[in-house]
Batch of 4 targets.
Target 1
Amino acid sequence: MQQSTIYLDNNATTPLDERVFNAMKPYFFECYGNAASNTHVFGMTAKKAVEDSRKTIAALIGGKPEEIIFTSGATESDNLAITGAIEASTKTKKHIITCAIEHKAVLDTCAVLEKKGVEVTILPVNTDGVVSLESIEKAITDNTVLVSIMHANNEIGSIQPISDIGKLCKKHGVYFHTDATQGIGKLPFNVEESYVDLASLTAHKIYGPKGIGALYVRNDCKISPLIHGGGHESGMRSGTLNVPGIVGLAKAIEVSVESLQEDAEYTADLRNQLLECLLKYCSTIRINGADPRINPHLRLPNNLNVTLYGDEGELLSGALWNVAYSASSACTSATGKQSHVLSAIGNMGGKDSTTLRFGIGRFTTKAEINSICDSIRDMMS
Ligand SMILES: Cc1ncc(COP(=O)(O)O)c(C=O)c1O
């Protein structure tokens, strides 16, 4: 790997924070028991770590410990929330409402359910990537089981009005699921204040380990499990618990919530510096999603997504030869298709367009952004 490469892909994943690693370490080497082994100290120590982590996470998002189910990450949490709610619903006709810029973990899950006879409404978003409350309210019918709208988007950083959506869902008696993957640790998030029934979380976007996440499930919200086996997690998600991962998830959320304001201001400053530089040297630039200079409250503080046209795109890619950024989102770029998120905000791509997503992180340095800006200036002026 190129050690000199500057990492600016923190919406795809983040490096592990040392504080998170230090919290996890004992659960690999010393306290390696199975949390389900209740006959010895190894198991009991592991179980205590899991339950302490559950309490920590619940307290940080305003829920109760028994409302946290550990999963392998947000993809699994999204699947469990949506399919689980549909399977548990006693309605004869079932309907889901979601929006066009959701992560594929939501959209593909809805598509599979649609093939099984569930009605799915996919709402459009405006050019800032925000869904309208009116469209959600209009779409709700007697058959609606749940509304699934993400807190913040992974490609263009758009922020949805989740408290208003939650209130609306409560008024109409339908479940509200939010994929909180990109919002947690970057935006204030509280399941009570936002009337959230189901929330998907993952550790690796907030300087925690990959392969661990959680689903928040409000006590009175009924979902069916997808994975059957030893009855772990109150029967909601069988499988031996990933104890170091769970400890890491709790620590990652704790650190991110504690440093939320500081991280947000720091990353936004660097993001804005990069944007100013791009605007100065790239005449064909289009900002995808809300312009952070005008509507910072509609965009994640650490995210920037731009499209350039013609030669400028190639020139910029050349200037950024030592920068790790994303062509759109990591998940979408694997398919090589035009991003569904960009299409939804009216950016249809095209042969002469180049789209770049930058995700600034807690560990991005000012010197790195200065050096990127110098390269852009040298190449483009
Ligand atoms: C909004 C969103 N949802 C879900 C996921 C999937 O998360 P995980 O990698 O934990 O399965 C991601 C990450 O790519 C994401 O950004």
Target 2
Amino acid sequence: MAIQTIKRVLVVGGGTMGQQISLQCAAHGFSVVLNDVSDEQLSLARTSLVKFATQMAAELQLPQSEIDEALNRIEWIADPAAAAEDVDLLIESVPEDVWLKRRIFAQFDGLCPLHTLFTTNTSTLLPKELAKHSKRPRQFAALHFHPNVWDSNFVDVMPATAADPELADILRKFALAIGQNPIMFERESRGYIINRFLFGIFRQALSMSAQDIASPEEIDRAFTGVLNTDAAPFRIMDRVGLDTMLSINKFWCKRLLYLPRLDPTFRRNQKLLESYVARGHLGVKAGRGFYQYPESKTDGQSSHK
Ligand SMILES: NC(=O)c1ccc[n+]([C@@H]2O[C@H](COP(=O)([O-])OP(=O)(O)OC[C@H]3O[C@@H](n4cnc5c(N)ncnc54)[C@H](O)[C@@H]3O)[C@@H](O)[C@H]2O)c1
């Protein structure tokens, strides 16, 4: 492949994940460009990213100087053409909408240098569903991060079926260079590994809440208490963002419509998620989701309703 070493990274989409991915790359010495739809959106992203940086510094006990240096390595550029200049790796992290993602890849194919590697942070799509729209299927992979990125430290590396065999190793080395443990895939898998487990758990948790079997707090308490784990389903969903959860649920709902026997769980879950999203209760990023969060906190810890 034309590129072996990645120096400059473009993150397209400055939401929850785009901010954390940018911060992780910058904190490990990479030059980062963060692109979003407008300067206003980038300004919101910047405020939120600085909060993530403060949280990361506290949790990893990093000196403020290191955080300041990392923040200085991030450029905030709304103009796609300017953002694409000289980048070696593009990480797409826009909302989970296949048409939007395809448009983004087609647009940036015309703007990025020929050597730029293209990756997606998609939760539910397969690389091959996006790769041909980038017009560079040999340089295309999913690079899928887990929140909070500095804490989870695992990233899925899933090259497109048509990718150059060298791509996996280049991305594996990049993952290690940004302090992440790469999970390497032999084949494309919808939902990677962990999401395939998690979606089953989320689906059951939402279904129990939608049927008023128990409150989100009680379902979380049962799960964490009995299994002796910190991983509480509703708290994780709040961290993911309930708008993102809704998109993912809609995706599965649509797919199931084509099956002969429609599972009603997805429809009930969709209604429940829609009721939260309609009130702006999007989870941690909005200060309120299934739980209520102090405005200043972004760590998934909450005060109770
Ligand atoms: N939230 C999670 O926990 C999580 C975890 C892993 C993967 N993902 C995946 O990551 C992706 C992003 O998720 P998120 O939760 O960060 O979403 P988000 O809604 O928080 O952020 C998306 C960002 O993309 C921006 N955007 C929209 N259109 C754009 C365009 N044309 N050009 C540039 N920017 C644009 C939006 O303004 C927004 O800032 C999705 O594919 C999601 O499935 C999410």
Target 3
Amino acid sequence: MKRSEINQYIREAEAFLAANKFKLPPYAAWTLEQWKEHKAKGDIESIIDCGLGWDVTDFGFEDYMKIGLFLFTIRNGVQHSEKYPKPYAEKIMIVREKQVTPFHYHRFKMEDIINRGGGRLAFRLYNSTPDNKLADTPVTIYRDGVKYVIPAGEVFDIGNGESVTLTQGVFHEFWGVEGTGLVMVGEVSVVNDDHNDNIFLEAPKRFPSIEEDEAPYRLLCSDYDKFLK
Ligand SMILES: [Fe+2]
């Protein structure tokens, strides 16, 4: 992805979240200079180590509008860490119409995906096989506390206020329903490890390759190493 493109999506996200009255923590608006000042003071280790902040990805497909996800991790810990023992995580995400987050499952993470505003969010789910393929067995899910057993791969969508609980080992893909606009999506989960806990069916990687064609407007959580070393 080009940095100029990422900058544009972050500006768009700031406007969309503000319009939906979703406020982000102060560091969401920090400039590179502010990040550097805090890094020098040594008071933002936990933001960096827990991977908090902006996160834009094309999952390595280099076609963001079709396969991509926009995220901001608001809280998180580090699994099995005494230093960052927080066992829970929260994200806010923006999903575009027909923009797919490709099939993946988590070995460790259980997550609730919540439609918090905007358009409708569609899902397709499969149980995983031991060799990480799609199983054809029925999938058990909970939608806001109500249990459903649905056929493998059946598409369903959720509106504002509705949520789905995704358990470990369940392959999921999701996208915004055509004609309904950007979707503001929440995620509440156990502690999140995007470096080790995403088993993708086909996607090459979790974080994008970035071509630095302009300065970053905001740092991504995947930028901290590069810009704050
Ligand atoms: Fe997931």
Target 4
Amino acid sequence: MTSVTSRWLVDASGRRAFIKRQLGLQKSSPHQASAAWFRFSKWIKIDQWCDDPAWQEGHAGKTARWYSTNHLMGQGYWVWLIPLASGSTSMGIVAAEEFHSLSDFNSFEKALAWLEKHEPQCAQAVRENSDQLQDFRAIKRYSVECERVFSGDRWGITGEAGFFHDPFYSPGSDFIAFANTFLTELIRRDLTGHGFRLRAFSYDRIYKRFFYGTLQAYQDQYRMFGNPTVMPVKILWDYLMYWSITGFIFMQDRLCEQSMYVRNLSRLSRLGKVNHFMQDFFRQWHEQTKDVPATGAINISEMPIIREMNQRLQEDLQGRAFFQRFAANLAQLENLGCEIVAHSGLSLSVPWGRSQSMLVRQDAFAHVFDSWQELEPVSLAETV
Ligand SMILES: Cc1cc2nc3c(=O)[nH]c(=O)nc-3n(C[C@H](O)[C@H](O)[C@H](O)COP(=O)(O)OP(=O)(O)OC[C@H]3O[C@@H](n4cnc5c(N)ncnc54)[C@H](O)[C@@H]3O)c2cc1C
């Protein structure tokens, strides 16, 4: 055995979770979902699965669908298809335990049988390419939590060694970036003679608040995966939450600025409640619409609000402009929440008011329907 000493210890050991286990910081996650994934040594081209013009339209040449990560979704699950630079295709089944048990897809043969039942077109592609199978892995209950990730005793945890939510939207790399940014600042402060112990305490709390805020997008929400009425709107909402708060703060290089959180405390806590309300609303909306067939398709990337909010991540906002934009982001989300709930037709009243600020779009959600394209029912049944 070799022994080493160092001023700081940072655990990036993934699920080995060295510090978490040593210090007994493990916490079970309420989000119980599992995954299995496998690779084929060739690119599988989803564009070829159906020759209906509606499926091909707008996706010729360099805009072919197979270049992107594609998700096939149904109640309680999603299936990913990712073209890898190596020339392989990664495919994965991710499902909430409440709806699908891992024991039904934890080997290649079982995964194929599961796909036959839930995603027959995908199953056909898997069967046709089974001689190109490279590997197969599965993980039961991938969500992990931790009591604490940063300590004034000069240790810290980053990545899956501490927390992991869910692979949908890929938040794992974001939270690695958040933890690394906080840890780098703590170590920098220590090495330059600045106080870091209290900071370790507050950064730990901020990190966990971001984690649990983001977890709301997943916990108890797999039921609506595959609902064509609710899911596109939920994805829109989740993107905008992300770009308005965590993504925004990080891109503006304000993650470690304690005074920024103090100044925005009431806004952040209000927004936590707004998100909680909306995620609950999505569950209720799902209950009302789960048997309604799909009638249209939305291209999220064409929506003005999505483009605007995405482009704004690049803005360089100094001083007052940052706080103004932050306030506008929050007001925009509140207005969007009002519009979405009103559009749903559910008899729910939103427990917050609308902002009339000039910085906020007053009809953000109306534009969703600008990009909504009616589909022939036949083509949808064949392709999705
Ligand atoms: C089902 C699933 C699908 C995912 N899909 C995606 C995706 O499509 N895109 C995406 O961005 N993210 C995805 N993620 C998330 C991503 O895998 C994780 O966020 C990321 O791998 C975590 O990185 P990490 O460095 O914390 O841990 P790891 O990637 O596990 O790295 C930890 C490293 O530490 C090493 N190690 C452990 N113990 C020791 C030791 N004692 N000594 C030396 N080395 C040690 C390990 O060998 C390993 O190399 C997915 C996660 C899951 C569960």
